[in-house]
Amino acid sequence: EKGRDRFVGSTPQEVLQSVFGYPDFRSLQAQAVTGIMDGQDTLVLMPTGGGKSICYQIPALCRAGMGLVVSPLIALMDDQVAGLRQLGINAAALHSELENEEASKIRADLAAGRIDLLYVSPERLLSPGTLDRLTRQPISVIAIDEAHCISAWGHEFRPEYRELAALPRHFPGVPRIALTATADQRTRDDILTALDMPHARVLISSFHRPNLNIAALPKASELRQLTTVLERHKEEACIVYCGSRARTERIAASLRERGWTALAFHAGLSPIEKRAALLRFRSGEPIVIVATVAFGMGIDRPDVRAVIHLDMPASPEAYYQQIGRAGRDGLPSDTVLLYGGEDMARARYWLEQSNAPDSEKRIMRSRLEAMIALTETTGCRTQALLHCFGETLSEPCGHCDNCRHPVITFDGTESARKFLSAVYRTGQHYGALHIIAVLRGKRTDAVERNRHDTLSVWEIGKDKPEPFWRSVVRQLIARGALKSEGQYGGLALNNEIARPILRGEESIQLRADATAELEKGNTSRS
Ligand code: ADP
Ligand code: ZN
């Protein structure tokens, strides 16, 4: 029997266990679910990974009618739908990227009352045809995900979200739940006003995880940096995140050669391989899982002692969720992010190349820039991370890398000008290594072939070692003075930011990377 209202009559607790397989609600979830079951409008502020979806999924099933979920990001919708279908829930997503065939299948299912939960983009929901179809359905709850998109105050404003104010008119008496991971007061007020739910119950969870020791350092010798962190956690469980499947395989193999028990985990594994990896991870043995973001669902090992990123995540949200898999038991745990300028430039380049709609690109761009700023921050990292979610930590945490070893900055104007000139003089399509070779007067094949040893910038940076220049490039990329010129990592000037520096109109402070420590991957320099 797969009728839509098959869970009506079961308690939320029963559905949580029988459908989702979790023994208990987290405390905020229980409050949200109880309120919605009673028809109460609710605003939930919870970090990514905190368990927001359960707050509306369970009432959607336990109340009569279909659950409606407004979501601004197609990729997120598709992930949610796939996850729910695996649990035997009839979920579907209506958005602009659907094939005609899929869309008509969903319309048929809708008309027949077969859908438990429908995800829909805001513009789609309020289009006359869809609205007409949906208002003919009994609706159990309306969830507005990423509700901060309604606020023009934030960086992720979506004008279509404003139209959601009309929801109560179209769906009178249906309880609404707005959810977001951005929690500052201004955004919160905007959401309540724009959705016209002044009496909503507001549930806020803190994002602070005081047992996480956050550190981030520029990539130098990646594998050495990685093993140095792992050495501190020899008999324990660690997760290493990489940006691609191939990289997880390669890194896991290198670790095994060096005597570690390491397994790769990514979406390309067969179901049997995945299950085997998860079983070993959960067994409690010391193990290093080298994974893509596919390693996330069902990670419930409480004693993960370190999460290491070899590639920069695309947003503070993703980063927070991934480091959050460390130290669930509340004991001190390490998180180390290795980052590099090329990675930043490449991430920006691919984002611009993607054919996501502009409105989505804008959201992803602001998240990526926030992530880049987080890696380069010279202040307390815990404060900076919480700040991304609108939470203020009044004192520096005292245990992140920047707190323990205050960052030294220096006037980098002259060095920045030398580097930017060299990019300009060589024609704006060479990678960082070539530019550094020119600055340091190193005669490589490419230098000789292009006669770059005849340029005015030849050898003008000889007095500084290569790691110094790598650090300068990275920070120039992070500031946006340099950008990727194509997919091969060639660098070009971003005139708006680079010109004033080149002309000497702007001086810049750079952070001095502790280069000797980078080689060792040492984050606890005591
Ligand atoms: P969010 O939407 O806030 O980012 P999700 O709803 O995706 O978070 O949930 C994050 C993770 O927490 C998921 O892996 C989910 O399976 C797990 N989770 C959620 N609620 C519970 C619970 N009550 N007990 C155990 N795990 C849970
Ligand atoms: Zn700190």
Automatic annotation (TrEMBL):
Taxonomic classification: Bacteria, Pseudomonadati, Pseudomonadota, Alphaproteobacteria, Acetobacterales
GO annotation, biological process: DNA recombination; DNA repair; DNA replication; SOS response
Residues of the full protein shown: 18 to 543 of 632
Cofactor: Zn(2+); Mg(2+)
A cellular component term, taken from the record's GO annotations: bacterial nucleoid
Keywords recorded for this protein, A-Z: ATP-binding, DNA damage, DNA recombination, DNA repair, DNA-binding, Helicase, Hydrolase, Isomerase, Metal-binding, Nucleotide-binding, Zinc
EC number: 5.6.2.4
Family recorded in the similarity comment: Belongs to the helicase family. RecQ subfamily.
GO MF term list: 3'-5' DNA helicase activity; ATP binding; DNA binding; four-way junction helicase activity; hydrolase activity; metal ion binding
Helicase C-terminal domain: residues covered: 222-372
Coiled coil: none
Domain Helicase ATP-binding: 33-201
Protein's UniProt name: DNA helicase RecQ
Source species of the chain: Acetobacter tropicalis
Keyword Zinc belongs to the record: yes
Reactions catalysed, as given in the entry: Couples ATP hydrolysis with the unwinding of duplex DNA by translocating in the 3'-5' direction
